[in-house]
Every structure is written in structure tokens, then in C-alpha cells.
Amino acid sequence: MGKGKDKLKSSALRSAWMEISLANILHNVKEIQKIAGKSKIIAMVKADAYGHGATEISTFLADNGIDYFAIATLKEGIELRRAGLNKNIILLSPVDNYYADIIVENDFMPIVTSLDNAKALSETAKSYGKVLSIMIALDTGMGRIGYLPNPEAIDEITKIAKLDDIHIKGLLSHLSSSPETDKSYSYMQLDKFKDFTEKLKSKGINPEIKTIANSGAIVSMRDMMLDAIRPGILIYGYFPEDTCTCDDLDLKPALSVKANIIHMQRVKKGFCCSYGRKFVAKKDSIIGTIPVGYADGYPANYSGNAKVIVNGKTAPIAGAICMDLCMIDLTDIENSKVGDEVILLGSDGKNTITALDIEKGSGMFRYEILTGFGQRLPKQFI
Known about the structure:
Blueprint: H1 3-12, E1 16-20, H2 22-36, E2 40-44, H3 46-50, H4 54-63, E3 68-71, H5 74-82, E4 88-91, H6 100-105, E5 109-112, H7 115-128, E6 132-137, H8 151-161, E7 166-172, H9 184-202, E8 209-211, H10 215-220, E9 228-229, E10 255-260, E11 263-267, E12 272-273, E13 279-280, E14 285-290, E15 307-310, E16 313-316, E17 326-329, E18 341-347, E19 352-353, H11 355-362, H12 366-373, E20 379-381
Parallel strand pairs: 1-20, 2-3, 2-9, 3-4, 4-5, 5-6, 6-7, 7-8
Antiparallel strand pairs: 1-10, 10-18, 11-14, 12-13, 14-17, 15-16, 15-18, 18-19
């Protein structure tokens, strides 16, 4: 183990970790930029950058020309500001008026979905001597947040536009079904978005940033890219679904998950491993233990299909994945020993395990898998 990993082990106090390739992150962003044209990129770094480490990823991307970032909670945004990020931070979830001062203090760009919320932000911005940029959310078919595209919404947004110390910077909507092969619903959403935009223009309201394209649209509906696009999982090296891929985006997964073997034992035929005794040795075997479990994001549902990479070969997980530990059948791995590196997600150059493999083996969604690993494992950026 190199000096960097030794330092990580010393600070993390455990023999399991994540490795995040900043080179692959940058590669993926450059791939997206090639097809983005004049559209701005709003980097989705919510949920700790999909488990990859939001402060490190965001500051790295800011140093490489990205000016807009999107997060889901105030805490996420505050962490980015404390890390020194001075770029535009869009707060994607509506926030109670109680927190208006935090939004204004940190110069977040909040999503606004009501006149009442806009008034609270306006009054707070005035008290700070600031003009606050906001994004108006439009619900074109997701059914989650935003104004419905009707005359009442036009009237209310017109009132918001007249408030002091508020600037409507953007109009945002979210596609519910962009990875689907049938694009009719997505284009219905786009039509509603464009129609609403024209009606706002007739009232003298023309936000600088109009955005509806998420990762699925970036891949398969590029006429939706408009003023800005919002790549999420693409940045981290994966397409949103197997039905939504393209040949002109060369994506490289950025995340690997690794651990060291911390215990080994030779066992006799008939020996049982883990909860429920799902693994019973069919012959005399070698069982190793690693300090990663479902509390670290390694899915319990993956137990029956899970494999890892050890010393240039793949080996199956033996029995149920526990909360903090899991066992490996090392019987066919030559010269394995305590301290050997185990790859749960990633590649050794010969063998590869991706989030798609874990998705297929566990029934979990690739988004859940990526974000799940970021909960407890320490991160090393390479």
C-alpha cells in the first residue's frame, strides 16, 4: 500500500476506502462539453456529488471552468461555501421562509415556487443590501415541485418579477421519463415549457437561464439543451439507464471501492458463513473477512451474486453481507493473505466490477449504489 493509502488508513481508522478519479471526472465533463455547444453546464453535486465527495468535486470542477453547481439542501450548500466555492450554487429544493437569511447570506440561488416565499426572500435580501437571483420552478409533468403552467402561475410570477431585490435568473423544469425509449411524454413536457416561456416573454419576463435537460435528455434529446443542461450521473461515469446510451459520449466511471482482508481462516467442508447460513462450504475452504458491509452501501440484496477482485482473480462473497463486514470465499485465490487489497467496485486492469454489475446482482438502482457508498467510507482522490 502506498503512502497516500497509509495516510488515509491512519486518518480514517479503518481498512476500507473509496477512490475517486478526478481525471475521469474531468474526462467525463469534457465529453459532455463537446456536445453541449453554447449551453451552460450546471453540475449536479447534490447527495455529496452522488457519493463522490461534493466539496472536492465541486472545487475541482470550478478550477476547470464550471460556473454553476446544483445541490438539494442548505447544508450541502453551506459545506461548499465553507470549502471556498464562490461560484453559482442553485438550491434545487424549496426551502421554508425560516431559512431565508441563510440563503441570502450564502448567495444561494433558490428554487421559488410561491409568491409568499419570494416575498420572504425579497425582504431578507433588502435587509442585507443584496439583490438575490432566483430560479422559478415549473411543473410540466414531474408532479414534484413548481408552478403548474396555467394563467394563475403567469400572474404570480409577474408579481414576483416586480419585487425589489429579487432577480429571476432562470426557469427550470424536470423531465420525468427522459431515459425511456418512447420520448413522447418528454416532448410534451418540453412543449409546455416552451409555451410557458413565450407567455412569460409577453409579460416582459425572459430569464437568462432556461433549463429542462437532465442526463437522459443530454444523451438522447439534444434539442432540449436550451440555455443550460444539468448532467448528474454522466459526470460520474454512467448513463442513466441501459435504455439511454449513446456512442459519442465516452464515459469513465470515477469511483472504486476497496478494502483489505482483515481476517482469514481455513475451514472444513460443511462450514457455514454469516446470517442464515446461506453459504455452506462444499469442500475444505479458505474464508477471508473484509470491513465493508451494507452500512457502507454494499447492498445486502447483492449477497447471493456478489463478487470481488483479489490478486488478479474474482472471488464470491460467502454468505450474507453483514452491516459492517462481509466474508469472501478465497479458496481459489492463490497466495491470499491478511492485508491483501480487495476491489468491490472498480478494476485491476484485467477484471472489472461496475455499478451496473451490482445493479443487476442486487436489484438496486445505479444511483442508489453510487450514493450509498459515500455514507461512511473515507474518500481518497486520485
